[in-house]
Amino acid sequence: MNIKSCLSTAVLLLLCSAAFAQDTIPENDFQVWNETTLAIPLIKEKDSKGKEVDKLTALIIGTLRFGQNRLAFVDERIGGGFDLRLNNNFSFSPTYLYIAGQPGRFRREFEHRIRFELSYEKKWKTFSIKDRNRVEYRIRNGRDDSVRYRNRIQLKIPVLRDGKEIFAPMVSNEVYYDFTAKQWSRNDVVAGISKKFNNNLTAEFFYGWRHNTSGLPRNINIIGTNLRFRID
Q1: Angle 18-21-26 (CA atoms, 0-180°, nearest 5)?
Q2: Please, are residues 203 and 197 in contact by the beta-carbon 8 Å criterion?
Q3: What is the C-alpha to C-alpha distance for residues 191 and 156, in angstroms, rounded to an integer?
Q4: 90-104 and 72-85: which strand pairing?
Q5: pTM of the predicted model, to two decimals?
Q6: Chain centre to alpha carbon of residue 154
Q7: Is the model more confident about 10 or about 197?
Q8: pLDDT (tens digit, 9 = 90+) per residue, 24-37?
Q9: Is 61 in contact with 78 (CB distance < 8 Å)?
Q10: Residue 17, by phi and psi: left (phi above 0), alpha (psi -120 to 50) or beta?
Q11: Which of 22, 26, 33, 74 is in Cβ range 3.0-4.6 Å of 224 for a Cys bridge?
């Protein structure tokens, strides 16, 4: 093999190794998340105490996530749906999301996700508990479709001043069961605070830890915000 052939082979191997490194998904990742929801009340009613509440609400949802340990785009979502208040404790919400993901450099994934969730929330004077049960059908480009069940239990403890809530520390745990893979595939643990600024803006600021039992990244540390704007 002459010198020219050796150099060509070395350059080719270098390019291949660089491309592989760029496409590799990290074992552990740090990510920044934001989800913004626009809530538009369509039907209102009065509850058992005579207070006006939203019975049926249209939702517009947008999500941006940055990661790959360098704040690159890893997940963009857009979608919408509805939130139906069944009674004082139960609500039902069907939603749809279109998702474009970049888990590794130069690697892209696309997905249509249809979700149905039933939530139960009970409030006491000093704390509240919310149990969200979600089933989602994932139509994935270039990969097999899948169906997942997700259960999240959230605890909030309001901090009051003169009888009014200033903010509410919160903690939650969410588990995922993948019916296609037949395994518990993920666990999310979240802690943060929720703040209702007025009737039209509620925000959550949180730290989260995600553990994937299969696939990469295996562990993700997250800081994020959830914003909900209510538009009358």
Answers
A1: 165
A2: yes
A3: 10
A4: antiparallel
A5: 0.86
A6: 14
A7: 197
A8: 788 999 999 999 99
A9: yes
A10: alpha
A11: 33
